[in-house]
């Protein structure tokens, strides 16, 4: 087979006077290659192939061979949703509209036609079907006879299917299908929300993009778009998103949407429980954000008898509840992640009744254990803030606790924490240092388990006996050790956020 990029492939089409002269087997492979690889590049050879096919159809839109060219354009239609050359999609669509008008009213003896049950999963087999369809002597194993496939009304139906691919929702009387953009969005969000984003995905841009989709949604699409924002909100507030503007945009879109659902009523006895996993919730929302997707949902629901009716799924009362919950979650977590964080409650948790540090609790919470992740952010910021007004052994302990808490934080410290801890660490790193350490033993090794036992002994030697390899108090309070700890912490935190955000300009 010649490649679609070979210049003489499309020239063959120009020289063909009738269907018998066509290298249809080769041509159908070229068309199918475009279908499979439509999104790989902006390809001028693809444009030429599409235009040649459209020209053949335009030359005789009501002719006997119209079925070949309408199916060919339908096979290549995905490319026309991607990056076709200027005017290529419009030309192809105009020709398909002309063919539809010329063919759909023709008399025929058939009760039905293949296009009426053709769905997007069957697109992959269209091109390989054409050679045998045109050659009466070829084997034919299809359920429907050639006469139905070659019928003018069937050609008109495939012209409308091609139009529906290029311009979703623009035609009727064809099986519903999900727009290609919706399929791409489902694939991209599924990977992202499962924690494995595609290499080219900009996480902030992808999450933010669903805010204007909701704000600008048509009334029929609005409920589905709200479901998508609900799904991406869970990811956005998890700490994986490090730009406040992303949460701002999502919150603004929900605020703008709320009035559309406010004051709604319904006669439903109850409402369905929406999916509680991000990928499933996003996919449902995207499906319900287009007319084709909603019709597919209803057909599937009726066939399976399992899911809730569409009117219950998109009920304005349910959507108002979803909007309220999503907005509350966005506002609360936006403040926690990016606002001024209150750590005053930590005094009761990390101080003894006499006001001294609860060293056992601090040692326990600085262990690299998954259950300490939920405490790490507040602990790190509390320790950094208290360090600034402490001295002596307390000061050394709090610096180390802040450093360790930052390491434990998952997925990473939120801006409110990073900003406060960095301020402390930068001040420590900038302090004047002695030329040499005031001790002869080594500095404590932070990652080791022995570190925590050593920390307790250092802070209260009368309460906690020394362990093996115990270090001097001078090694723990050494200014050069403090600077080393601060430097490590700074390197961990710098780069997580823009510097102007760290400075407070958010």
What does this structure look like?
The chain contains 26 helices and no strands. Helix content is 60%, strand content 0%. It has 506 residues and is mainly α. Residues 1-17 have low confidence and may be disordered. It has 3 domains: 8-166, no CATH class; 180-338, no CATH class; 346-502, no CATH class. The protein has helices at residues 8-14, 24-36, 44-59, 66-76, 88-103, 126-134, 146-149, 152-166, 180-193, 203-208, 210-215, 219-240, 244-261, 278-287, 291-304, 310-313, 316-338, 346-350, 359-365, 373-387, 392-408, 415-430, 450-459, 473-477, 479-493, 499-502.
Please sum up the structure shown.
The protein is 60% helix and 0% strand. It is an all-alpha fold and 506 residues long.
Largest sheet entry: none
Helix content estimate: 55-70%
Structural class: mainly alpha
- Beta-sheet strand percentage? under 5%
Mean pLDDT: 91
Helix-strand topology string? HHHHHHHHHHHHHHHHHHHHHHHHHH
As residue ranges, the low-confidence spans are: 1-17
Strand tally is 0
| Total individual domains | 3
**Quaternary structure classification:** single chain
Rounded radius of gyration (Å)? 33 Å
Features:
26 helices, disordered N terminus, mainly alpha, 3 domains, 506 residues, single chain, 0% strand
Question: What is the fold's blueprint, element by element?
Answer:
Blueprint: H1 8-14, H2 24-36, H3 44-59, H4 66-76, H5 88-103, H6 126-134, H7 146-149, H8 152-166, H9 180-193, H10 203-208, H11 210-215, H12 219-240, H13 244-261, H14 278-287, H15 291-304, H16 310-313, H17 316-338, H18 346-350, H19 359-365, H20 373-387, H21 392-408, H22 415-430, H23 450-459, H24 473-477, H25 479-493, H26 499-502
Helix pairs in contact: 1-3, 2-4, 2-6, 3-4, 3-5, 4-6, 4-8, 5-8, 9-14, 12-13, 12-14, 12-17, 13-17, 19-23, 20-21, 20-22, 21-22, 21-25, 22-25
